[in-house]
Amino acid sequence: MVRGWHLEGLAVRPEHRMVGHTGFLITARRMADGVSAPERRRRPAKGAYPADHDWTPEDVGERPVSDKKLRRVRRDVGQAPDPT
Asked: Where is this region: Disordered (predicted)?
C-alpha cells in the first residue's frame, strides 16, 4: 500500500487517499500417502430452518455438561462465602 503525505505549513499529515491492492493468500499442504482429507463442514444456510424451529443443544453445537463440571459446581455451591 502506498500512502503519501500532505504538507501544509508546519503540519504534516498522511494523505486522505491511499492506493492499495486487495488480494487473497492461499495456502496448501501435501498430505501423506493413505490419509484422506478431513470432511468439509459448512454452516447451514439462513433459510435452512423454519422460523419456529425448536433448537436443540446439538443444533447450536453445545457440548454436554461433564460429570466433573457438575461435581465442581455442587462443591462450590455447598461452600458458604467467608463472612469476613
From this structure: 33-84
**Contact present, 1 and 20 (Cβ < 8 Å):** yes
Residues 6+ apart with CB under 8 A from 1: 18, 19, 20, 21
Average pLDDT of the residues in 54-65:
81
Q: Which helix (H) or strand (E) element contains residue 71? A: helix 67-78
Mean pLDDT of 49-71: 82
* Percent above pLDDT 90 for the chain: 7
Q: Which helix (H) or strand (E) holds 11?
A: strand 11-14
pTM (whole model) above 0.85: no
Placement of cell 492461499 in the chain: 26
Phi, psi of 32 (to 5 degrees): -65, 155
